[in-house]
Amino acid sequence: MEPVQLFNQSNLQIQDCGAKGRGIFTTVSIPARTVIDISPILLFPSEEYSTHGQHTQLDHYTYRWKGGMALALGLGSMFNHSSTPNVGFQRDIDNSLIRYSTLREIQVGEELCISYGPNLWFPDMEDSQDQNNSSGGRATNGDVSDSEDETAESFFSRIQLSDDDDDYDHSN
Ligand SMILES: C[S@@+](CC[C@H](N)C(=O)[O-])C[C@H]1O[C@@H](n2cnc3c(N)ncnc32)[C@H](O)[C@@H]1O
Questions:
Q1: What is the per-residue pLDDT across 80-112, written as a single tens digit (0 to 9) for each?
Q2: Does residue 171 sit within a domain?
Q3: What's this model's pTM, rounded to 2 decimal places?
Q4: Whose CA is nearest to atom 26 of ligand 1?
Q5: Region Disordered: start and end of each range (predicted)?
Q6: By C-alpha distance, which of 25, 128, 140 is closest to 75?
Q7: 100 in a structural domain
Q8: Pocket test for ligand 1, best of 60, 63, 77, 111 (most atoms within 8 A of CB)
């Protein structure tokens, strides 16, 4: 594995988000396409996960991964879901980590959210986060430029795993 530089997260905070539990917020504005976190992952092989992990709290936090399910160690486990995410993520299978990057400029006080995909296992309380959003600038199609939209698309395409990776569905 190649050495991977980790990041100083002093401008990010964990805050209470009411019904969503905890979430990640920024105390500074962040430009589009900024890498905000690199989370090493802990892999649970498919058989171990289906026997044990799937029946525990882990199932609220794990990502589909090649050969099983992965727990992101660090901020990666703390991002809440949004159907209009302002953060995208990219799995680095070879290095057992996930990189998280902003999909558009993010304003001071905004929550940083990723998309969990279409099969949620909880009622989506996304709208309740507006009380924490001083700028009112949640990600919408109107907030991103065409080029940033293309970046979002490339992240989305990676969220949907395929082939042998797709052996576990969070919606079941
Ligand atoms: C990966 S955890 C995110 C961190 C979590 N909020 C915490 O406090 O540990 C995923 C869980 O957060 C909650 N969650 C995330 N996004 C949500 C949303 N849009 N609406 C409601 N609950 C959400 C759900 O309970 C989900 O199972």
A1: 999 999 999 999 999 999 999 999 999 999 999
A2: no
A3: 0.78
A4: 60
A5: 124-172
A6: 25
A7: yes
A8: 60
